[in-house]
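Hello Y.,

Per our agreement to keep a running log of every chain we model this quarter, I'm adding this entry. I've kept the format consistent with earlier entries: sequence first, then predicted structure.
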Amino acid sequence: MVETVLVVDPEDGEYTAKVSWNENRIVSVERVCGNPDSILMPGFVDVHTHGAFGINSMTMSYGDIENWEKQLYAEGVTCFLPTTVSAYAEEMNGVNRVVSEYLSDNPASSVSGLHFEGPFVNIAKKGSQNPSRIRQATIEELKSISLNNVLLMTMAPEIAGFEAALPLL
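Predicted structure for the entry above:
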């Protein structure tokens, strides 16, 4: 199939091109003049999302992740990290179990892993985080939290326990 598109490329800029593809793979891109029918650009990456479409990352089920992923594709998001809020270790591990099971069954998923936001943040800069869940980092607690599939962890460098946690993380 061939289509004239506006290519938005982070390296080459914007230009109109005839794009040929076969079986969902781009075969050729030829710069042309003309009016594009659509836009071709890289997908969006969302590394900080607590939920969408009525889904809450802290209480989501396997089916919720599947639904969330499908709906994000329609928004142009091709990679995302469900993001927790400051929580207890058991809650963080529960979210991780659901995501780990989903990723095990769907290795080509747009869910790239998890973002643990807190609970090891500065209470004076907590934003909307629940202050009763914010605490200093301890090696014991960090060892009790499964970090499988955690790609990003928001942790304040000025809190007690930060430097001791770095080698473990």
